[in-house]
Amino acid sequence: MTPEWLEDGRKVPDDVMYYIRRMAVYAVRVLGQSPEKVAEAYNFDRSCIYRWLKQYDGGGFEALESHMPRGSDPLITKATDDWMKQAVLDSTPADFGYDTHLWTSLILATLLRDKFGVAVSDTAVRRHLKAMGLTCQKPEYQDVARDEREIARFLDDKFPRIQRLAEKMGADIAFEDEAGVGVMTRHGRTWGMSGETPIIKASMLRGGYNVLSAVTAEGEMDYLIQDGTVNGGRYIGFLGGLIAGRKRPLIVLADHATFHHSKQVRDYVRAHRSQLRVFFLPKRAPEYNPDEQVWNEVKNNRIGKQPVKNKEDLKARLTSALDSLKQNTRRIISFFHLPDTKYAAGVA
């Protein structure tokens, strides 16, 4: 028996019709086929094809989406719109029993049906989401173990006290971090033929370096490249380099790496108390450390886009990238003017 939807286009679901319209228009406008042939192939009256072409010419493929007939009562009301917006912004599908954290219009359509008895297509859901100012984006993942209250205390209380201490001591404030950079560090895109993944001959050798760096809101930067694991002793060596020859004391803010808390490091800082103090940033909140931008600059914007041959070549390129950044005071200052780091520059 022939399915009804093969003989009557009105029986085709809205979601499917949207793609049929797109394929039909593509066949005419891009492939150059005649509207009559396309109408015959899809079993639609040719007036439908001409109507779709007119819609496309006026508003592109989005104009081909299914729309509710004029005069009919909206299935998605303001109340369901408000619920969808709150659900998308304040929760994830996992909160509703799904095995994913990522919202899709199909999941929302299913929830609307189950929760409100509203039967709508995912196309209609997408249209409503767009009308509410929501867009489909790549999410930023945050550690579930992070403590938002700790972050708030740091921003509202701890860091202002550190600033007052710096003023009392006549000290500078530096933000410090470490990162590994390997021969196989690669980022970025390139051009190629559509549908064919570009192939680039590159070194598959392993190996790399650990880099320690520190930056100030005034645009100063220091770094140290280490061939091997960073431990308490090497960290002390870096701290010693930071305060060597300085005329003003230095307050360093660092993350909670294990060796930062080691007795060896604590003893060193205590022994140089008049020159050096070390405080800690909130746990699992790297976006509040301006020095994180050093790695974005060096790994993503420099090394990751260069043809590194081997470990020796990596060190030369890494040194060049770090030296170049160290000389770029304005760029370093910009690391303190991001939404999450402007607190460190005293920007309201």
**Major sheet characteristics:** 5 strands, mixed
What class, by secondary structure content? alpha/beta
Q: What's the average pLDDT?
A: 87
| Total helical elements | 13
Adjacency order of strands in the biggest sheet = 3-2-1-4-5
CATH architecture of the largest domain: 2-Layer Sandwich
Give the % helix. Answer: 40-55%
Question: Terminal Cα separation, in Å?
Answer: 70 Å
Helix and strand run: HHHHHHHHEEEHEHEHHH
CATH fold description of the largest domain:
Nucleotidyltransferase, domain 5
Tell me the overall shape. Answer: elongated
Provide an overview of this structure:
- The chain is an alpha/beta fold.
- The chain folds into three domains: 4-64; 78-131; 151-345, 2-Layer Sandwich (Nucleotidyltransferase, domain 5).
- The chain is built from 13 helices and five strands.
- It has helices at 4-7, 14-29, 35-42, 46-59, 78-90, 105-116, 122-131, 148-169, 232-243, 263-271, 292-300, 311-327, 329-334; strands at 172-182, 208-216, 221-226, 250-254, 276-280.
- The protein has a five-stranded mixed beta sheet, sandwiched between helices.
- Helix 10 links the parallel strand 4 and strand 5 (276-280).
- Helix 2 crosses helix 4 (46-59).
- The model has no long low-confidence stretch (mean pLDDT 87).
Please specify the SSE layout and strand pairing.
Elements lengths: L3 H4 L6 H16 L5 H8 L3 H14 L18 H13 L14 H12 L5 H10 L16 H22 L2 E11 L25 E9 L4 E6 L5 H12 L6 E5 L8 H9 L4 E5 L11 H9 L10 H17 L1 H6 L14
Parallel strand pairs: 1-4, 4-5
Antiparallel strand pairs: 1-2, 2-3
Helix pairs in contact: 2-3, 2-4, 3-4, 6-7
